[in-house]
Structures are given as structure tokens and as C-alpha cells.
Amino acid sequence: MVAALLLGATSASAGTPPDQYPKAAWSKVNPGLLGWSPEKLAAVRKFVATLPPSSVVVIDHGREIAEWGDAAKKIKISSMRKSLLSALYGIYTPLNHFDLDASLESLGIDDDPPLTAEEKQATVRMLLEARSGVYHGYVAGTPGMRESWPKRGSHPPGSYWFYNNWDFNALGSIFEKEFKTPIAKAFDTRIAQRIGMQDFQIDDMYYLHAPADASPDFDQSIHPAYHFRMTARDLARFGYLFLRNGQWRGESVVPEAWVRESTRAHSQAGEGKGYGYLWWVDGFDLPVSSFSAQGALAKYVVVVPTRNLVVVYLNHTEFPDDASGMTTDAMKRLPSISHDQMGQLLKLLLDAQTRSPM
């Protein structure tokens, strides 16, 4: 695995370093001067080397502490796409005086096969929280999601949390209908360009539609998935934008109120995890709070505010676009890491950051 790591001879005993923003590229610094243990950071590198090929970027106070793998490699980020869309909702909702409590019925949102009268009472906010109760066929899901899928009509809108790709795909359709702009163009102009992403291009986002032979109770839906392919170094900027409460060089890119609201737990999702507006909250059994964007087959952007850290981990194995017919066993055979292994990586990094916490 290609690795680039700048190690210092000694750890700094100085206080908290000032925050900064990256320019054309991330500034690479001597980790020891920012209070990192070179020996412990080397041990993290060894741990990463035991995992499948990946791209890893670690940012501390706006400076690159470590880069392992190819940070410029574009990879399908799977469900991390949902946190990108959440940020766009945060930008466009106030600009358009959009009501998050508008119902699907009032917005003219339906599907094929049609939604029921009760399902149409779900609101946009419920979709953001994954609490719609709409258990309709959808595009792009893992076998595990299919196996735990509730029956249609089993929960009234807003009453039950379930990680549901119908909600997330419908949010993409609603965004483009209400704000009259393609998701890729909105992300490029409102986020990527404003925070200086090095690699993102509009054609790095594509739509995945239901297959022609989709069955009504499995993956038939008019709402496509909106997939992104991105690099670890660009995703580190996205994570840093949220670490800095939506601010970038003194300008508001995402409203601070939305950052706070979208990254707090509105529901408990089990195993110590919460769920906000398309963001995961905590869940790695860490001694500090965090929030994260996550995608299938080990795609992560983890933000740890009290440590001023952003950690990006992108497994190079991509979730197949034609995975609707895959079995759970077939999915498990794809190279990846477990959620617990990601937690272990984060704990090793926190331990390597030896200066006093904020």
C-alpha cells in the first residue's frame, strides 16, 4: 500500500494549534509538532496495512496528519451520498422557504406501484430522519436491508425508525423537483467549488434506475438512486466543512443551525448509534462524541469535534450497481472491514493524539 506519513522526532507539548483551511491542497505537517505520538501513529499505519486496500486521510485542525493509500482515487461512496444530500437540503431549504413538514401528498410525490393514502402523509422531515413508514420497493439496497424490510403499512408515518433507501431516493427526487436543479450541479456550485475540492466533477454523480425486470415488492420504483464517486481528500474537505459548523474561510456554506440539527440524534438506531438528518451519530464506542457519513463496504467520513479531527476511510472495493440479486453470503465475500474494525482504527488514532483534548 502506498503510504505517505510525516513523522516528527518528538511530540509537541504546546497548546491547541490554531485552525486553518486548506488552499489548493491539504497542508502536510510534522504530526509531532501537533502533539501526536510518532510511535503510536506508526502503529496505526501498521494496522491499516492489515486491512483491504483503501484510501485514508486524517485531518487535525485543518492540517493533514496522515495519508495512506491513494487519496486521489475516485471511489463509489455508496450511502455516504445521503449526507451530501442532507447538506444540500440545509442550503436550499432556507433559500427557498421550503417547508420540511410538507407531506408527500402536498408535494405530489407518488411511486409505481402507487403509495397508499397513509404513506402519502409522510413528510420530508420524516424522510430525512428515516421515519417515513413507506416500505415500498426501492433502488440500490444491500441484501441485509432487504432481509429486515418491514411489511408495507406496518408503521404509521413518523412512528418508527428504519434505515430505508426509499426515503433517501425519494428525497433526491423531491430536491430536484422543488429546487429545480440537478443534485450534481447543486453540489458542485454550492459546496465543491466553494470549499475548493480538488477532484470532483459533475459527471462523478450518476443515477441508478430500477432494472427493467424489477418486481413490485423488491426494487421497482420511479425514484432513482443518486450515486457519487469521490476521493478521500475531497471528502476530508466535506468533513472539515461540518467540523467548522458549515463555515469556510469566514463564509457560510451550510447554515450552522442545519449542521447542528442534522448531526444530532433524532432517533436511536441500536448499538449505541443515533441517526440525524441522513447522518449517523456516535456508534463506534469512542470516549468522545462523533458524527459520520457511512456507506456500504467500509466508506466513512468521521468527524470528532472535541478532538478537531476528520478521518476518511474509503475501502477500494465498490458496492456493485447490480447488487439487487446478491445474497448476504456473496456480499460478505467482498473485501471490506467491519464497523468494529473502523472503531478500532478510530480508537488507535485518538490514542495517538497525545496532546490535551480541547
| Name of the CATH superfamily of the largest domain | DD-peptidase/beta-lactamase superfamily
Please identify the top-level CATH class of the largest domain.
Answer: Alpha Beta
Shape: globular
CATH architecture descriptor name of the largest domain: 3-Layer(aba) Sandwich
> Mean of residue pLDDT?
92
Largest beta-sheet characterization: 10 strands, mixed
Number of strands: 15
Helix content: 25-40%
The helix/strand series, from N terminus to C terminus, equals EEHEEEHHHHHHEEHEEHEEEEEEHH
Query: How many H/I helices?
Result: 11
Q: CATH topology of the largest domain, anyone?
A: Beta-lactamase
Structural class determined from secondary elements: alpha+beta
Q: Segments where pLDDT lies below 50 for 5+ residues? A: 1-14
N- to C-terminal distance: 33 Å
- How many structural domains? 2
- Portion of residues in beta strands equals 15-25%
Question: What is Rg?
Answer: 20 Å
Question: What would you say this structure looks like, in words?
Answer:
The protein is α+β, with helices and mostly antiparallel strands and 358 residues long. The protein folds into two domains: 3-76 and 231-352, Beta-lactamase, CATH 3.40.710.10; 78-226, Beta-lactamase (3-Layer(aba) Sandwich). It has eleven helices and 15 strands. It has helices at 38-49, 81-95, 104-107, 124-128, 143-147, 165-179, 183-192, 232-243, 256-262, 328-332, 339-352; strands spanning 3-4, 27-28, 54-60, 63-68, 75-76, 205-208, 225-230, 247-248, 251-252, 267-270, 273-275, 280-282, 291-295, 299-304, 309-315. Helix 2 (81-95) packs across helix 7 (183-192). The longest helix has 15 residues, at 81-95. It is globular, with a radius of gyration of 20 Å. The protein starts with a strand and ends in a 6-residue tail after the last helix. The model is unreliable at 1-14 (pLDDT under 50).
